[in-house]
Structure formats: C-alpha cells, structure tokens
Amino acid sequence: MNATIYDIAREAGVSIATVSRVFNNNDRVTEKTRTKVLSIAKELGYHPRAQAQSLARQSTKIITAIVPIISNYFFMEVLAGMQDELANHDYDLHISNVKTTEDIYNQVEGIVKRGMSEGIIVISIHFPDDKWNELKPYDIPITLIDEYYSDFDSVSVDSTEGAYNATRFLIQQGYGKIALISAAFDSEPVKERLIGYRRALEDEGQMVDEALIVTGRDNDRDGFTEKNGYEAMKTILNMEEPPDACFCASDIQALGALKAMQDMDRSIPIIGFDDLSFSKYLGLTTMRQPMYDMGKLAIDKLIQRLKNNTKELSHTVFSPELIVRSTTPAASIAGKATSSGVNKKILT
Amino acid sequence: MNATIYDIAREAGVSIATVSRVFNNNDRVTEKTRTKVLSIAKELGYHPRAQAQSLARQSTKIITAIVPIISNYFFMEVLAGMQDELANHDYDLHISNVKTTEDIYNQVEGIVKRGMSEGIIVISIHFPDDKWNELKPYDIPITLIDEYYSDFDSVSVDSTEGAYNATRFLIQQGYGKIALISAAFDSEPVKERLIGYRRALEDEGQMVDEALIVTGRDNDRDGFTEKNGYEAMKTILNMEEPPDACFCASDIQALGALKAMQDMDRSIPIIGFDDLSFSKYLGLTTMRQPMYDMGKLAIDKLIQRLKNNTKELSHTVFSPELIVRSTTPAASIAGKATSSGVNKKILT
DNA sequence: CTGAAAGCGCTTACAG
DNA sequence: CTGAAAGCGCTTACAG
Predict the structure, then answer these.
(1) Considering only residues 186-245 of protein chain A, which place a Cβ less than 7 A from any atom of strand C?
(2) Tens digit of each residue's pLDDT (9 = 90 or more) over A272-312
C-alpha cells in the first residue's frame, strides 16, 4: 500500500511525469491515459505523498497557527473561525503551541525557520516591536491575532475601549463604587483593560481606588480561569466596604465570580469581557469580542497575502460590543427581584 | 534568509554531510567543526527544512488528529490533553477536520493516504467495522478516541453505563418520572446514552415513556448545544404533566436547560454528562468523562505503538464518574431552599 | 500529448 | 572524523 509514482508509471506503461500530470489535473493528458493511470492508482492505493510534493513544489499548502496554550475558550472560538474559513481554501492547518515557561521568541522563531508552512498566524503572543522585526527577514507571511505590529497584518480588539465602555456602563447604571476583577497584571490585554477601567473612572472624576482592583491567586492561563474569578469575588465580597458593582476581565472569571456570589448568597452587578458561547445562558452582561470572526478574518488576510504579497498591510481593530443581559440591572431597580435569578440581592 | 545546507557547507568549507551531522547531533564531528558550522548557520539564519527532512528520513514526526468539527468543548478538552502529552515528545500536531456534510470516510482515507503524518488519532468519528478495516492496509498506527474497533488502540467512555448510573441516581434521589434531554438520535454516544437511560428505568420496573425523551430543534453539532438544551427544557416544562427530574445528554445542553428553567422561573433537578470545566461553577451534577486524560492517554498509546508496532492492542474504557453537586437534591428536601440558587422550586 | 532529466533540501550507508 | 554519492517521492521546464 505504499505505492509511489514509479509503481504506477511502470504498471501503466507511462512515465512518472505523466502520472504526476494526471494527479495534478494537467489537461495535457489523453483521457485514455488518464483513465488508465487513475484506475491503476486506485488499485494500488496510491496517493501523492504530501512531503514529496511540498519539496518539489516549494510550497507546503500548510498554515501554522501558533498559540501559547490551547485549552482556552478564546483560542477555541478563534480556532473555530479559522477552521471554517480554511475549509474554503486549499490549505491544511497545523497547530504549534509554545510553552510559556520557556523562551517564547525562540520557539516562535524555530517554527518560522522550519519552513513547514507557507503562512503563520500568531495568536495572543506579545513581543516588543524589535522582536517582531527580527521575524521579518524570514519572508513568510505572518498575521497577528490579538496583537499589533505595524509590519504584519493583524486583527485585534480594542481592549481599552471595551474596558472603558464596560466601566462607564456600570456608572451609567447608577453604580458609584466599581471594582475590577483583573487577570495576570503582566498580560497585555489585561494591561489595556486596566487602562480603560482607570480612564473611565477618571473621566467621571473618580479617584481610582487600587484596593478595588483584585485578582484571584490562581494564575493558570494568565489568571483567565473560573477559579481565579471565584477567588477574586470572594475577596471583593469580604471587603469591609464592598463595591457596588464589578467589571470582570473575562467571562470565564465572571462565571467563577457568579458562583462565589451564589455560595455567599450575595450578589453585585457584574459585567464580563468576551461573550463566550455560554455567557448568553448565564444571563451575563459582557463586552463582546468577535472571536470567531477574528479567526475567519485572520485566515482571509493571510490567504490574500499568500496570493499577493505586495498588497498593503491591513490592520483590523474591532470595537467590543456591549451585550446587556441580566447581571447588570439599573441601580434604581436593583433592589427588586429580577428574573435572572442571579441578582437576587444587591449589596448596600 | 533561505539558506540551505549547501550554503552552510560552502561557507564552512565542509561537505553537506558534515553540516547534516552537526544538526543531527551526530557525535562523529570534531568540536571545532561543529562550532564553525553552527556559527555560520546562525549567521545565515539556517534551519533544516522540515519537509526535506521528512522525505529523506522517511519519517515526518507529525501526528494528525482528525476531528469532525473543532468548536466543541469535548474536543477542546481532549485536544488540551493531547497537546500536553505531546509536549513530552518529539512530535508536532496537525489537525484535520472533516466536513460532516460530505463523505466522511473518503476524507479520512484521503488524510491517511497523504502520508503527512506517522500516526493518526481519530476523535468521535464512527464507522462500521468494515470501514475501519479498509484503513488497516495503509499500515499507519491509528488510535481511536470515543470509538471502538477491535484492531486499533482506543480510549473511550462507557456512555451506556454513565447514562444508566445517572438515571438510577435520579431514581435513588427519590424522583419517579424522569425525562431525558437527548441530542441527535443518530449520534453514536447519544444512542448509547439512550440505552442506559432505558435500561435503568426498566431495571426499576418502569415503563419507558417515549414522550419523556425530548431534544431541541437546534441540530448544530449533533444537538450538543446550549440552544438545543434550552429548547428541550422548554418543551419539558410545558408538558401537561411535567417530569420530576431530568437526565441531560451533555453539560452544554444542561446549561441551556438551566437557563430555560430560570426564564420560566421553574426548576426541576437535572444531571448532565461530561463535566466541562465550567460545570463545577454551575453547581451542575453530572457524569464525568475524563476528556483531558483521554487525550493524553491516546497520544501515549499512539507513541508507544510508533515505537513498537508489535505491542498488543490496548483498549481503555473509562467509566463515567458521578459528580454530585447542587442541581440534584434528594426529593425529600427538594422543596426547601437550596443554597445553589438553581433549584429554587421543584415542580409537583 | 508524452518522456528524459534535473532539481527540491535533506539523510545516510559506504569508503577512507 | 569527513566526503562523495545515492536516494527519499515528487514537479516541471525543455524537447520532441
């Protein structure tokens, strides 16, 4: 069952060039020859070997996605979008995940150098400009997701704006003292969300109370875990003077925070960030990142560039969209029962 | 920056064989030669091309995972386990997803034939035995996840047993009339769960009431969606004589079902199936599938076989573990308030 | 329409 | 320790 083009050629009484042409749908082959080759190929279970084609064609038809870790809802949704878009094109998807415990740049560079793929999508990896710059000479198209660098195509979300709007929304709903559940402080999106949070408060003439910026102890996945949110909310609810409402850096943490409220039988309004597929079913108000679309668009951009490397750079920055659900009732009505079953009680 | 082994050899004044040996850590190279080659390689940004190595070595160092669709929590957790285990080995992960709208077998066979990888993991794809048998002659190790075929290594979960125990648990908790929220009836795991559900009722001397077996209209992802569960639960709660409790074929549907209960401000005990990472934070009682471990184990088995193809076949069948949380209080106390905030009211 | 031959970038016995 | 050469399985000008 490991027939090669030579076996087919011999059996069919043609040259290997002809066999190759048949499999490449080259029209300069008689129908008769084609039929014969195909039937023999089928008989012998022949199929062109991917690596040999890649080498001879100098093109691998593979796109590599580099991700820091796979078990994360954000990546999953992005990946889903990538897969769906890829289905429309003649490329295979290869996934390389880099260990965040080792030098990330070296790992990324290694993947780029190996030349396994024709194009690369880097998801949620943050480098200073000079590092990205070092990657340019390899001359392989790179598209960034959740990151910006001037010389590569990119698609990202304005986290600062999202955090700003989330915080303002809470203020508009009538809440004065707003906490922030943060994730790892050295995470790039977290930094941006912190800026938006601070800016919103400042624009309202409020002093930022650093004690109100909390995060859980769990630092797995940069703190973007249910557990982290759970711990953070416990901290918040145990404060001497708890806040009136809370902006949470991610939906997954918000889920943990919601559970903490239930366990303590208390509740404060909360808004998340992401809009994961299950958030709708949690009644969670959140700032939506179009993750699936980001994945699709990134593949689209990369493939466009693969076709035409001279096309101008394209940077797309999505604005997170406010999705109001039931975890953020207006302060004026917050004392009353809500149908969500979540905000049963508002702390005073 | 597209230096090849020839460029390095020329610059270093050695043969390409020597350069190759340096990069393969062959010890029959003088330290001096090695150092020189390495420094020139670094200077020229050289790195062995993956495809060329694969072709020459007749080994690709790639494992392909074939999945029907990626945006599914089950796959995501399995994939996470695979990635983590793979990190301990010298293999790259390639992901091919097959379209369920086209002939799945042909797609799988095509992937196998292309010879891109040395080993294949097939996740949640179900074929009759003769189809799996057709794949044997290709002589590439295949490990099945969530499926069983006698001649390939496999790791799966006993869905029937899980459903049986879930149903019995509900009965033991004191509920008499138990509904089943099913997903697509032609899905293999769903079929098995249905069997377990029926068997449990029969063992209790109950007639199976077909009207109590419902599913939502949403048939995306075989019906394993929040939406499907939401719809199904609405149907259930709108019955003339609603059931006392409900076994749900998946946690993701259970999440939708929980939301339906909230929206209708009613509630019945519910048990799910999967134990997704967020289920804990929903307080959802469920039958746990060790998805992450399944992924790890599958990679482990595949790599063992890659090392020694004569080792005997290994089939692992996990038993789902009952995880009791707050959505399934005993009937005797169900009327009282629970701290979960979910079972606020039990239908009578 | 078809074939002979070079080339893709490596690895690896075989000699020395 | 090192090199010359064959080979991995294809593709693709170049001729005819």
Answers:
(1) none
(2) 999 998 899 999 999 999 999 999 999 999 999 998 888 99
Q: What is the per-residue pLDDT across B4-28, written as a single tens digit (0 to 9) for each?
A: 999 999 999 999 999 999 998 877 7
Q: Count other Cβ atoms within 10 Å, centred on residue A1.
A: 13
pTM: 0.87
Q: Which residues of B touch A77 (CB under 8 A)?
A: 71
| CB-count burial class (<10 Å; 0-12, 13-18, 19+) for B314 | middle
Closest residue of chain A to B101, computed from CA coordinates: A87
Domains and CATH numbers, chain B: 5-48 (1.10.260.40), 62-157+291-318 (3.40.50.2300), 159-289 (3.40.50.2300)
Query: Which of B97, B114, B137 is facing A47, going by the closest CB pair?
Result: B114
Q: Do B96 and A95 touch (CB under 8 A)?
A: no
Q: Are B106 and B116 in contact (CB under 8 A)?
A: no
Whole-number Cα distances in Å, B133 to A49, A278, B100, B119? 22, 39, 21, 16
3-state secondary structure string across chain B: CCCCHHHHHHHHCCCHHHHHHHHCCCCCCCHHHHHHHHHHHHHHCCCCCHHHHHHHHCCCCEEEEEECCCCCHHHHHHHHHHHHHHCCCCCEEEEEECCCCCCHHHHHHHHHHHCCCCEEEEECCCCCHHHHHHHHHHCCCEEEECCCCCCCEEEEECHHHHHHHHHHHHHHCCCCCEEEECCCCCCHHHHHHHHHHHHHHHHCCCCCCHHHEECCCCCHHHHCCHHHHHHHHHHHHCCCCCCCEEEECCHHHHHHHHHHHHHHCCCCCEEEEECCCCHHHHCCEEEECCHHHHHHHHHHHHHHHHHCCCCCCCEEEECCEEECCCCCCCCCCCCCCCCCCCCCCCCC
pLDDT tens digits, residue range B182-214?
A: 999 999 999 999 999 999 999 999 999 999 999
Contact A114 B48 (CB under 8 A): yes
